[in-house]
Design a protein that fits this description.
The two termini are 31 Å apart. This protein is of the alpha/beta class. The longest helix has 16 residues, at 172-187. The chain has a domain at 1-82 and 162-172 and 191-239: 3-Layer(aba) Sandwich (Rossmann fold). Strands 6-7-8-3-9-10 form a 6-stranded mixed sheet, with helices on both faces. It has helices at residues 45-52, 75-81, 98-104, 112-125, 127-131, 142-154, 172-187, 223-227, 230-236; strands spanning 5-16, 19-30, 34-38, 59-65, 68-69, 83-86, 160-164, 191-196, 208-213, 216-221. Residues 208-228 form the Rhodanese domain. GO terms for molecular function: ATP binding. Keywords: Amino-acid transport, ATP-binding, Nucleotide-binding, Transport.
Amino acid sequence: MSDQPLLLCRKLSGGYANRRVLHDLDLTVRDGECVVVIGPNGHGKTTLLRAISGLLPDIGGDVSLAGINLRAKSPDAIVAAGVVHIPQGDLLFPDMTVIENLLMGAYLTRDRQEINRRLEEVFTLLPKLKERQKQLASTLSGGERRMVGIGRGLMSGGRLLLIDEPSLGLAPIVIEQIYKLLDQLRRSGRSIMLVEETANRALPLADEIYLLDGGRFAWHGNPTELASRTELINTYLGA
């Protein structure tokens, strides 16, 4: 893991219309690191990911990836720079097959060999998708659709995965499968920024933790430091 930041946000702010949601956020993700952002529902976690990936047009502050300023870039250009946003929910193309949905993740890539390499990697990580590759996305279970969403993100070949509440709406056994996959990605050296409302699955993956409350970071540090902060655990983790 490098000491140099991969993602650097400084004084990041933004919102919707006349409503400001994010307030002067400083955040760093280093290469090979898993950063977990937790906090109550409706307090800006999804908005934070949208601001980084260029889906929130009205933002203030600075966002950079490996020293490249992302502020003035379009969402497509941010994907090309290496930021991959895997949103909450399914957001698949229901009338397309699994493999067609996966290939949409590589839409910026023209190198067929590279696309095939990424597809093989996805099928190795998610062998069930290989079995289901010709099946329409609309016929998949909720867990299978979530796996296609993650696989499509991996097909982009990005340097940083922004993953928004991957456990949302899933049964406990499926959540366990999703988090086994995320642990594999983390162990393989992937750089991940993971957003969750419930922390029990996400925190064991974390190198750094940010607690987002009311659009501001109430605290950030590593898991060891959090373990000694009883008041934060009681307030934010429901313990």
